[in-house]
Every structure is written in C-alpha cells, then in structure tokens.
Amino acid sequence: MHILFVESYPHVMYGQQRTLLYLLEVACQEGHTVQVLSTERGVFADHVESMGQSVICCGYPERLSQYGGAIYRYGFRDKLLTQWQAFSYIKTLRDFLLNQEEHIDIVFCNDMRGLLTMGVAARLCGIPAVIWDKLDKPHGVLDWFQLPIADLNIIISDAVLKKYPAWQKRWYKRKIHKIHDGCAKLDGSGGDVRKYWGIEPSDVLLTMVGSITPRKGQDRLLRILPELITSCPNIKVLLVGEADDTATKYCQTLPNIDHPSVIRTGYIDNIAPIMSSIDVLLLLSRQEGLGLVAVEAMSAGKPVVGTRTGGIPEVVIDGETGLLVEGGDDAALLEALTTLCHDPRLRERMGQAGRVRAETHFDRHRQHRRVVELMCSLVESR
C-alpha cells in the first residue's frame, strides 16, 4: 500500500506531530510505501528527514496560512477570498495527486485542515481519505463536513465523537472507529534532570507538559500554588512547554509564574527523562482529546492528576492510576495534590497501576498498527 501522510502544522512538534511520526514508522515497519507532505518546512520536516524520509512541501496561499483561530475571525470579504484561495489550493493538490509516478492508494490527513484541503483533493481523484481525529474542540460548521469527506474517520476517544452532528453519527456510523493513541514504554533514571534544575531528592516534583495556553490550564495549578506550598513546603513545579503567539497575554497574566518554586523549561523534545524524574503529572486541560502526555507519565510509572475533561477520564482511572477533579474546583485540586504530596506510597501504588494500564491498553505499536490495518482494509475493499 502506498500511503501519503499529510501534516498541516509542521512548524511545531506537539502530540499530534509526534503521533504522525510514530504512525509513519509503523507503516514502514509493516512494509508499506510512504510519502510525507507538509505545508511548509519546520521542525516536523526535520524529524521526518532524520528518519530517512523526504518531505514534499506544498505551501498554503496567504489567507489559509493563518493559525490560532485567525481564519474564524475573518470578516465577510476575507472569508470569500479565503474560500477562493482554498478552491485554487485544492486544485493544485488534485493536480499533484494525479501527476504522481506511483499511484497513491490512500491519503492520511493528520488534522482537520488537511482533510478539508488534501482530503477533498483526494476524493476528487477517487483516492480514499483518512483522518485520525484527536481534538474534542468543536470547529463549528466545519464539523459538518468531516464525516462526509472522510472515507475512514478514526477518533482518539469518545470525547471527540461528541462534536459531530447527531444525525451524521447515525448516518456515517460505519466510517467511525475508535483507537486510542499509545506510547512506547518509558524507562530510565531521571536523576540528572532533577540535579540540572536544582531539585532535591526530598522535593515533590509536580509537572505540567504541553503548550502554555488557556486550553492546557496552567493557571489552575498556579493560582493555588501559595496554599499548596503552605501545606507542602517541599513542592517544586516544572512547567515544560512554551507559548505560541496567540497565548502571549495568557502567559503575561499567569498568577505566581515567577514564584521561586516554579521552574519553566521551555520546549523539550525528548520528555522521557522528564517523565522519569517527576513525582506527579498534572493534566488540567479545559479541552483534551485524549492526553497522550498522561499515557506517557503512566508508562513511566507516575500518577496523574487530571480534570474530568474530554478523553482524560478514558486514560486516568480515578483512585487507581491517579486522581480526577472538576476543572474549576480549586479546593478539590488542592486536596488531591496535598494527598499525593504527603503520601509517597500512594504515589508509588498509583504509578505502578498506571504502568500496567499503559502497557495493556495504550501500547504504541499495537495501537498504530491497528490504524494501518484499518487503512489496508479500506483500500482492499475498494
């Protein structure tokens, strides 16, 4: 099978992009021929090329190249111009598909942007289009187009399913398949990481990993920090990630961000040493399709404190592999963290249960192979 993988956010390397890299790796291991197309050069293309694969770039026209929700804020005239550029771009992509020396059997779109552009072009060429939907955040009216366009619509959690129109979920039921994302087993010592950041062995290290944005909810931890430190003086907070241009104001208004117990690392590509170093991972998102970082923490044998949001409850078992709280309940979050900070045996027990759950339900190779197998079945049935 010849698969074309499409990434529309190649300028960052977050969970979505890492998932595509893993899927690309599994497809190659299974003996399939692959191509990768992205909308521009960037860190994603660098990673693909480090795997020995080439990247084809097909840049967006000006109005489609906006990120951070800018397109949704366009006025009427700008929206018309955007639609015209989108039609022209889809034609360019269609011509690209038709002019390939080796026939492409299937197109995998890693996000909604890719499906609405390359996915449409593929359908015009009679090539099936696939998406592995990882977002529970609604796109408004655009969500009405996803199921009709995709030949195979894989969802990462039940939370993603909620954004589709009810009648479409019934009409296109056979297109929808749920496959959780997965990760490789994370092992190794994290002592050097703690030493590098000046974290003592007696410190309890709470960590949040992800882009610094309102969606990820770093403010929920930081606003209770003074009370938490009063209860647990040996707390340290590690914030791993950076803000994009759309979250500058959010970063500037984060409470207690300059507290001496808070360490900001910026973006870190390899988080395995981080996960091996921490005591508790926090995933306090306001929206979260699944929360791959929670799976990674569990794989490293660490407990997770998360919000009852999106797909997080499908990963974290409350009271067994971690603790779940309501997003806006500061008192419940403070109680959960205080409990774990004062009870190392509970942290150890939950961490071990999380490791077993990650290995049983979220093995990366097994989950990604299931995605490839679904694509093979789709191609063979046509």
TrEMBL record:
GO terms for molecular function: glycosyltransferase activity. Keywords: Transferase. CDD domains: GT4_PimA-like (cd03801). This is Glycosyltransferase family 4 protein. The keyword Transferase applies. InterPro entries: Glyco_trans_1, Glycosyltransferase_grp1. It comes from the Bacteria. The keyword Transferase applies. It comes from Billgrantia kenyensis. It holds the Pfam family Glycos_transf_1. Residues 197-355 form the Glycosyl transferase family domain.
